[in-house]
């Protein structure tokens, strides 16, 4: 692991719960924001290909560069890393997954960090824009007319409000690989925006069932008064833990990513999350640590 002194680092076991990249992303974000040295071990131990993949290494290296940190053992295949964060520095940064690894998941590791920077930053991320098990970057890419018609049919049964679905296609010289992706977004009267998404293999003819299930999920969000969708719930956990006072969100059943994010936040920040379930929805609450970066302390006092 090298000669970097991390004797006071907080240990994080990457084999807990989701045992994948979520623990890595959340732990690195919290560590960089709070300038807390961490040592992660058993990284992605629950996967068939354990250890860091290219996109994970790229995300961690990016977070380390953003905070001028000291990083050890961040290489593809590594089962452990050590990170001593420095000062978060706004600026222009680039990262390349070198694979079709999701740029959305790479962004999850650094977006909370840059929110605590003293100025605006710019990111150029290269990787997959629409991948399985990750939030897509675009609302729709290469959506087939059949998907559009099926979505209109399903949604019209559930909602009496006007429904608009549009589609577009990126030029072939701008992307690698072929995939059909869709995202349906619902704007509520309480200013919530909830989305459901799907990725369709061009050779897969079961799109009707996928679209129908997505529309049912959107209807359930409305039925149970949910304010954040399945992709958003885990991304809010770190922010709730860092916020001052009590935060509360209503979502659907907790995803494994959300349970993992809660574990990491409680482990690194000492906060306590409470979860209550009722009639198809969950309420997550937390009394945050009230973290304020140095450059904002005078303005917040």
From TrEMBL:
A cellular component annotation (GO) from this entry: nucleus
Gene Ontology MF terms in the entry: RNA-3'-phosphate cyclase activity
Family matches, as SUPFAM superfamilies: EPT/RTPC-like (SSF55205)
InterPro entries the record matches: RNA3'_phos_cyclase_dom, RNA3'_phos_cyclase_dom_sf, RNA3'_term_phos_cyc, RNA3'P_cycl/enolpyr_Trfase_a/b
Pfam family, one: RTC
Signal sequence bounds: none
Gene Ontology annotations of biological process type: RNA processing
Residue intervals of the RNA 3'-terminal phosphate cyclase domain: 17-275
Protein name (Swiss-Prot/TrEMBL): RNA 3'-terminal phosphate cyclase
């Amino acid at each position: 692991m090298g000669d970097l002194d991390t004797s006071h680092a907080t240990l994080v076991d990457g084999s807990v719960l989701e045992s994948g990249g979520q623990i890595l992303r959340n732990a690195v974000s919290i560590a960089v924001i709070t300038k807390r040295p961490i040592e992660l071990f058993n990284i992605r131990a629950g996967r068939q290909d354990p250890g860091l993949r290219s996109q994970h290494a790229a995300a961690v290296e990016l977070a380390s560069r953003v905070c001028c940190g000291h990083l050890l053992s961040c290489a593809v295949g590594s089962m452990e890393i050590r990170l001593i964060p420095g000062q978060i520095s706004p600026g222009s940064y680039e990262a390349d997954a070198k694979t079709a690894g999701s740029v959305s998941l790479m962004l999850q590791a650094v977006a909370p960090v840059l929110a605590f920077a003293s100025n605006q930053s710019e990111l150029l991320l290269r990787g997959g824009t629409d991948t399985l098990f990750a939030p897509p970057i675009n609302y729709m890419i290469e959506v087939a007319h059949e998907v559009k018609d099926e979505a209109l049919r399903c949604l019209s049964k559930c909602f009496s409000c006007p429904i608009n679905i549009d589609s577009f296609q990126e030029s072939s010289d701008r992307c690698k690989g072929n995939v059909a992706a869709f995202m349906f977004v619902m704007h509520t009267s309480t200013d919530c925006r909830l989305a459901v998404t799907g990725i369709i293999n061009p050779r897969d003819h079961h799109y009707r069932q996928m679209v129908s299930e997505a529309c049912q999920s959107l209807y359930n969000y409305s039925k149970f008064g949910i304010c954040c969708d399945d992709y958003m719930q885990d991304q809010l956990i770190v922010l709730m833990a860092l916020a001052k006072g009590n935060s509360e969100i209503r979502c659907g059943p907790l995803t494994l990513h959300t349970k993992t994010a809660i574990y990491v936040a409680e482990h690194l920040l000492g906060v306590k999350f409470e979860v209550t379930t009722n009639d198809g929805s969950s309420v997550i609450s937390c009394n945050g640590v009230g973290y304020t970066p140095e450059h904002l302390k005078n303005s917040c006092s």
